[in-house]
Every structure is written in C-alpha cells, then in structure tokens.
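Example 447.
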Amino acid sequence: MAKDRIRFICGNCGHDSPKWQGVCPSCNEWNTFSEQKVVKPTGEKNRISITDIEKLSVTALSDVTISDSDRFSTNLTEFDRVLNGGFVRGSFSLLGGDPGIGKSTLMLQVAKNCPDKRILYVAGEESASQIKQRASRIGLVGENLFISSHTEVRNVIDKARNTTYDLLIVDSIQTVFSDNLTSLPGSVQQIRECSALLQQLAKKENVTTLMIGHVTKEGDIAGPRILEHMVDTVLHFEGDKNHLYRLLRTVKNRFGPAQEVGVFEMKEGGLEEVTNPSALFMSGSDLDVSGNSVTCIMEGTRPILVEVQALVTPSSYSTPQRTASGFDQRRLSLLIAVLEKRAGYSFAGNDVYLNIAGGLKVTDPAADFAVVSALASSLRDKPLERNTVYVGEVGLGGEVRKVSFFEQRVREAVKMGVRKIVAPKLKAAENWSIEYKSTAFISELRL
Ligand code: TYD
Ligand code: MG
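Predicted structure in complex with thymidine-5'-diphosphate:
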C-alpha cells in the first residue's frame, strides 16, 4: 500500500529536505520551504535488478545524419537571426521575459509569418477570444493556428502527438500542470515534471516545442534552474517599459552562437522588425550641446551606434549625486576617478548624470571612451565634434584600449554616415573610408 510522507521543498531551487528550514542550504534563499505530501510506493518495485534493464542499441557518430531541412524559418529575419536560421525540428526552447513585454504577441507574429505551418498554441493565460482579439490587431487570420485551453500536461502531449504540428507553443509553462502532483501549477515540482514530459515529447516524437516562461524580479526564469539545463535554447525578450524597442536575446543555444540579438519595435499593429537598430538609437544625435557623444557597441555579433549623454552640474547637496541610467553606476564612478587622476578634470562639488539614449542597457566596455568624452565635454561645457564616434575601453591608467570586432564597428559607423572615428591606434586603419583619429590616452581629449 502507498504510504504518505511529508517533505519540505524549496520553492526556488527545488531542494528537498525532511524538515522545514529557514534558509535553503542549496540556494541560500530565505523562507522558501513549503510542505509537500509525497506518495511513496512500497514493496518490491523499488528494487531494480540488472535483468530489468532494457537492452539499448548505440549508434556510431559517423552514421548519424543531419540535413538542412531539419530547420524551418520563422520568416521573421530578426527571430531567425537569434535562432541561427530558424527552429530546429524537434528542438525544445524556452522564451522568458517580463510580463507585458510581448512574448505572446511575438508568438502570434511567428504564426502570422508562417501561414503554412501548423501550430498548436496551448493558452493557459488567456482565453481563445482574447487571443483572437490580439490576432486581429496584428492582422493574423490563423487558419493553421490551433488554440487549446487544456493545460493538463498529458492532455497537451496527447493533442500534440496525435496530429502533426510543426510547432507547439506552451504559453506558459507556469500554467501547465500534472494531475499526478498535488502542488499548484507554477510550483517547482509541477514545472519540473511537466517540462520533463514535454522534453520527452520533443526529443522522442520530434515535436518542435517552445515554452514561454515567467521571470522573477531579478530577471531569471521562474522555476527550477534545471529548466534552463533541459532546453536546447533559452531566449530572453527584454526591453524598457517606457520605450518601444524590444530585444530578443539568445542566452543559450545548442544549435548556434549564443548572445545573438534581434531587435523589434512594439507598434499599434504588433511587433515590427528593426533591421537598422542604429537609426532607432541615434534619433536625436544631431543636437549640438555639450555632454553628447556617440559610440558603437556590440550586441552579440551586431554593431549598434548609441548615443551617450552626460550632464555635470554644480551640486546643491552635501554629497554630490552620481546617477547612471542604462550604464553601470560603479563603472561610472570608476571612469570619473580615472578622469580626475589621469587627465586632471575635477568633478568635486558636481552632480553627474549619465544616460544612454533610447533606454538601451550598455555593458560593452567599448562605450567607456564615449562616456569619458561626454563627461569631460559636459564638465567643460564644450560640445564634442559632431558626427564622430568614440570607441575604446578605458583602463585605470587612463589608457584607451583596443576592443574586439573593431572592423564591424567601423563598417556600421560608415553605413550610418559617420564622418570620423576616434579610437586607439590600429594597423590598417587607412583602408577604411572614414576619417580616423588615433588616441592612446584620455588626456588627449583636450577639452
Ligand atoms: P503580451 O504579448 O501580452 O505580453 P506577454 O505575453 O509578454 O505578457 O504583450 C502585451 C503588450 O503589448 C500590451 O501592453 C499591449 C502591447 N501591444 C501593442 O502595443 N501593440 C500590439 O499590437 C499588441 C498586440 C500588443
Ligand atoms: Mg503572455
């Protein structure tokens, strides 16, 4: 007879403990343990003998074949870019993002662009009529898009395997549940069990599956960490609530390079692809005021021109403010310290505000030199040369260092009609059809 047992499971990482604990010994989160009833089968079943183990065949790697038709395009250039050419058949992917960022809209957009592909959309968050409303907003008829509101995992698997679908979309994994478990949908156990079953469906029956996942306040995908290990591809859809652009980023990809980025813009009629993101982030750069500079950052393998704005004003507080938006605050303090020590600028008694225009978050160290130039320009109240791009990492000694992908950055600047580039000394710089000024130290700014 089955015997019930009480276990305590961490809601964050799924760690299993026989007693309640305040701090999870596995993930160090506080107050995450909850009580779960576990049904333990009793009797002989628990003991395995070697004769029970199935005989399995193995295949030589050289005999395994792959073909190009194993991938299908979404007909969305930006989506294909992040997937490295489209969905791999039988792949198991995860798309995470903040609520309301446009994950469901993006999936409908895929359906719209692939009218010949049969798609099963498991909708746990919205009713079919809500989806219909949104679909009409983006102009999707959906003859090959099938909506199912049943989110019991066996039901989902049954539907997906009995008819051939090119793509199964599960919106979202947090709403799918298994009747075998007593815990609520969205709990660690439910996510773990349901995603394991969906993974088997993808791998054994070759059903291309994409799950949408919620994210936590910190921006990680909600649920057990194992979810990200299980899937072939992890995509993040991100953007700023106050801006319309959205970035689709590959965090993990077993079929291509990770850190690839696709850019979209949320419009009245759905998501629109942005094939020239530099134009999006450079819309106000012709302003001739001090503190404005332009740099070229890399988002994955993609160069994007962005505008950096600094404002240095006399402080009215006893402790001067250092505020950065779209740029790391500590990096800003570091660059101010380098400017003070190595180039003789003094920011004492001044508030410093730094902003990356368009709401983009910049982490590429190549933006350092543009930040330093913008800060010096605002402090001295002298505008920088117009139509000029600053590229380089700034070291603690005040030196401007070389950055990777320099040629791609130059090509992007040329494409966007930039006249001049200021960067550390490079070989073969003369071949580029752009004026080039070599800089080794930030003190050469002379502002
Ligand atoms: P949604 O796809 O529901 O987000 P998620 O699934 O990530 O929670 O996105 C909804 C948001 O997108 C909502 O705030 C309205 C906006 N939106 C548009 O601006 N234009 C459109 O055409 C559509 C369909 C949505
Ligand atoms: Mg949604």
